[in-house]
Amino acid sequence: MKETILKKFQEVFGDAEGVKCYFAPGRVNLIGEHTDYNGGHVFPCALTIGTYGAARRREDNRLRFYSMNFEKLGVIESSLEELVPAKEAGWTNYPKGVMWAFGEKGMKVPFGMDLLLYGNIPNGSGLSSSASVEILTGYILRDFFGFEVSNQELALIGQYAENNFNKVNCGIMDQFAIAMGKKDNAIFLDTADLSFEYAPIALKGAKIVIASSNKKRGLGDSKYNERRSECETALAELQKVVEIKGLGDLDEETFEKYASAIESDVRRRRAKHAVYENQRTIRAVEALKADNVALFGKLMNESHVSLRDDYEVTGIELDTLVEEAWKIEGVIGSRMTGAGFGGCTVSIVKDEAIDGFIDKVGKAYEAKIGYAADFYVVEVGNGPVTL
Ligand code: NG1
Ligand code: MG
């Protein structure tokens, strides 16, 4: 891949003098969905697919961007003086947002750069291509200008950019999973205090299979912000009767005890999902540590049901992929992953069942939805690296 992006860099920007190459992974969340903005736990892992970047420092403040995924757009030019939050749409808001965020954090980016990207994560699929670009950019800036930031701080800067430059009110999961990725491990992260531990993903005879619904998220971002505010209101209602900082502070029993303080049925179901999902995530990680992959899978399935019925973020595409997967012998667990409304599902499938899984789920999906899904057997990889 390094040769391909260097060659393209030369083609696009004239020469490849002084260019360095980098990679940042995408991520998939195994369990713990819509908990990262509720002070709960998540359990994502970095993947070996992600974003490749070829970059060169400039002596002036110009910025030149090119994406091999959006070749029609050509070279997009800007400058460090023009970093204005969400002025216009487009992929360059991700690198620009991170450059802006460094400045906001007291680390003004001194010089511009030429940056070429190539991503092999399916676009808009919920495997976090945007956070991958953000962490890649932060990693390059640190390398170029010697900013003293840890990978964990890179994650926070990426989230800050997403929240304040791109105006997507996301939690910390994506950027954290990518910046802190570790081969063959998932990250059990408590979003309440950012304490975390690595847990080995030893699936012994099974693999992680991602199915992309190819349904674009559409109104996803506004629905996402709507779920966030429903949870915030539910939390405020609960705080009148019980002392908690986030929904992640309650277990199932205490939630049931105080749930009547939430005045609407819809908000009660949203909060119920957040509370139960957090507890499921804690139990799922315990199961995995105890080598009980079957229980881990069962909890993944329960996660999907809760996202479908209580949180209502699935939709017919994701439900079809998951419900067809559940019918197949050798599927240990299957659920939607990411924000929902479209995007991907994640399944744990026994090696010998993978081909049949892709074939059967693929056919049933196309018959019902009218277009095809894409399948990826993925591996758990490291965080960002210089190539
Ligand atoms: P995706 O699907 O990658 O956009 C979103 C949020 C996460 C998390 C999940 C739901 C963004 C960029 N990320 O993930 O922080 O809240 O939904 O668990 O919006
Ligand atoms: Mg906690």
TrEMBL record:
It catalyses: alpha-D-galactose + ATP = alpha-D-galactose 1-phosphate + ADP + H(+). It is found in: Cytoplasm. GO terms for biological process: galactose metabolic process. Substrate binds at E33, H34, T35, D36, Y224. PROSITE patterns: GALACTOKINASE (PS00106), GHMP_KINASES_ATP (PS00627). Keywords: ATP-binding, Carbohydrate metabolism, Cytoplasm, Galactose metabolism, Kinase, Magnesium, Metal-binding, Nucleotide-binding, Transferase. One of its GO terms (molecular function) is magnesium ion binding. Its EC number is 2.7.1.6. Its main location: cytoplasm. The record marks R27 as: Transition state stabilizer. Mg(2+) binds at S130, E162. Residues 93-182 form the GHMP kinase N-terminal domain. The active site is at D174. Residues 284-366 form the GHMP kinase C-terminal domain. GO terms for cellular component: cytosol. Gene3D superfamilies: 3.30.230.10, GHMP kinase, C-terminal domain. InterPro entries: Galactokinase, Galactokinase_bac, Galactokinase_CS, GalKase_N, GHMP_kinase_C_dom, GHMP_kinase_C_sf, GHMP_kinase_N_dom, GHMP_knse_ATP-bd_CS. ATP binds at S67, G124, S125, G126, L127, S128, S129, S130. It is an enzyme of class 2 (transferase). It comes from the Bacteria. Pathway: Carbohydrate metabolism; galactose metabolism. Belongs to the GHMP kinase family. GalK subfamily. Catalyzes the transfer of the gamma-phosphate of ATP to D-galactose to form alpha-D-galactose-1-phosphate (Gal-1-P). This is Galactokinase. It comes from Acetatifactor muris.
